[in-house]
Amino acid sequence: MTMTSNSPNSAGIDPVRAGAESLPAALAHWAETRGDARALTFVDYAGDPAGVATSLTWRELDAKVTALAAWCQRRAHRGDLAAILVEQSAEYVIAFLGALRAGLVAVPVFEPSPLPGHLSRLAAVLADCDPALVLTTRRQADAVDEFLVEHDLAGSRLVAVDMLPETIGAEFDPVPPRPDELAYLQYTSGSTRNPAGVMITHGNVAAAATQTVRAYEGTPGGTVVSWLPLFHDMGLVVGLAAPLMGGLSSTLMDPIAFLTRPVRWLELMAGSGAAITVAPNFAYGYTAARTTDEDMAGLSLDAVALFGDGSEPIVPSIVDSFYAKFAECGAKPSMFRQGYGLAEAVLLVSSSPAGEPPKLRTFDRVGLAAGRAIEVAPDAVSSSTLVSAGQPLDQQVRVVDPQTHVVLPDGHVGEIWTSGPNVCLGYWGKGDAESAAVFRAEPRDEDDRPLEPYPGTRGWLRTGDLGVCLDGDLFVTGRLKDLIIVDGRNHYPQDVEYTVQNAHPAIRRHAAAAFSVAGDQGEHAVVVAERARQVTAEELDPAEVAAAVSSAVSSEHGLAVRDVVLIGPGELPRTSSGKVRRAACRTRYTEGTFGLDG
């Protein structure tokens, strides 16, 4: 399979600051050339449901970042790590960029939170990276200090970034970063493994941010709107790095504010003109389901530039539900841009062209599981409709046999490998051999000759994702490690989960996990599903639901489900971007730590 990079700005229009090799350099450029223009707005809904907006110009942001950088320089050495334990706010942006400008390695994480699993994950991340500094805010300082002491992590020096006077910026000693120097560690969300710190250089993030701006055709003075957490790879690149590299203003809100009332996201888009946004697939269905007719009164999305979707395989019905819901507000399928990416590539690998509706292809489900993309009619029995993830962005992409490492021809399912300037160095604290196996792999052609990587790079990234190429489009089919293999047959979990959620009205939509576990007689399939919120535990009949699930999965997939576990709403393990953590579900199931509901 051959896939070449697309260049959305092939006409010669380049919105990205030429020569900016780092985010601090881009910030300095915009502060000098567009100093009084708005760079950043944070809309706070915590105290006022209508939202209170606070904005910074490029010059103001630059001054605050420089002040923090000066403070960091006096308390840490170049290359030391600085963890960011800041709530979603303008201060998060200042903390991240201040660490980079000081020559430190930022570790974007999150403030101590009572949300399930967050405290243990935060402790594990900090223990793994052992930062010299912990950056937080006055509001969070006491809680962060208590957390560090409680988890024996008190060796790090703590500072509230919103308490520093801007006058100390005069003491800053510039340290221009080199492209090959570490900029930050992006800890993965842990959908298939324990969180690991991906080592991202200044060159990596500059390249990825540039790719993102070009793909989405952002121009200086435009606006990006994001509710995604800034510690997450998608939130950091879309909400911070890409706007900074392209000179776009960024309008941010807290994820909880979105989850509480998702129409706020659309209201900010409507009020920002030709705005750009990107969100995981689930967010579009969630917004459609949670927005009332009253919410939509007066909402106009006609001027929105694009809605991007860059999460795991896109569910066509979710996209359809969003545009059906908001068609009267001006939302059109041509606004939608689907893509594919991962933290190890600093976000985007591919994206669809502008101005085209999502491209759907329907394949025989059994054929896909067996490794071949055989097109069938949309209403065919045993069919699976996939949405194209578009074409590569300034990088090379191949579909490779994960066992032989030989590149596969079009129409064959294999592991997605990519090579480009956005591909990272490796995993923090891991041996070079472990990182090399993932980040510097060596594919071969059908004549057993090695394939050259992208010019100036060292190898190919094994994404761990499965996909197929047809007519120049990449279709993502699932995770390699998530495949359910029973009796020698492969089953994609998302296909099984779609059947499960429609098997009985007591099962919550988009809240099921299907996986296999080892038994005495080999692998067998298990389903864990949340009950619908409108169904109480007392009303639930677990045996009836389990029978319906088993019957539906057997009929649709020829797969016997050994066990169906029902849990309460919100109990399914998810990543910070909302993806179901199937590996975590498998672990909890085998450990017996899922509480049976009902």
From TrEMBL:
<dbReference type="GO" id="GO:0006633">
    <property type="term" value="P:fatty acid biosynthetic process"/>
</dbReference>
<dbReference type="GO" id="GO:0005886">
    <property type="term" value="C:plasma membrane"/>
</dbReference>
<dbReference type="InterPro" id="IPR025110">
    <property type="entry name" value="AMP-bd_C"/>
</dbReference>
<dbReference type="Pfam" id="PF00501">
    <property type="entry name" value="AMP-binding"/>
</dbReference>
<keyword id="KW-0276">Fatty acid metabolism</keyword>
<protein>
    <submittedName>
        <fullName>Acyl-CoA synthetase (AMP-forming)/AMP-acid ligase II</fullName>
    </submittedName>
</protein>
<dbReference type="InterPro" id="IPR040097">
    <property type="entry name" value="FAAL/FAAC"/>
</dbReference>
<dbReference type="GO" id="GO:0070566">
    <property type="term" value="F:adenylyltransferase activity"/>
</dbReference>
<feature type="domain" description="AMP-dependent synthetase/ligase">
    <location>
        <begin position="28"/>
        <end position="428"/>
    </location>
</feature>
<comment type="similarity">
    <text>Belongs to the ATP-dependent AMP-binding enzyme family.</text>
</comment>
<dbReference type="Pfam" id="PF23024">
    <property type="entry name" value="AMP-dom_DIP2-like"/>
</dbReference>
<dbReference type="InterPro" id="IPR045851">
    <property type="entry name" value="AMP-bd_C_sf"/>
</dbReference>
<dbReference type="GO" id="GO:0016874">
    <property type="term" value="F:ligase activity"/>
</dbReference>
<keyword id="KW-0443">Lipid metabolism</keyword>
<dbReference type="GO" id="GO:0071766">
    <property type="term" value="P:Actinobacterium-type cell wall biogenesis"/>
</dbReference>
<keyword id="KW-0436">Ligase</keyword>
<feature type="domain" description="AMP-binding enzyme C-terminal">
    <location>
        <begin position="482"/>
        <end position="593"/>
    </location>
</feature>
<dbReference type="InterPro" id="IPR000873">
    <property type="entry name" value="AMP-dep_synth/lig_dom"/>
</dbReference>
<dbReference type="InterPro" id="IPR042099">
    <property type="entry name" value="ANL_N_sf"/>
</dbReference>
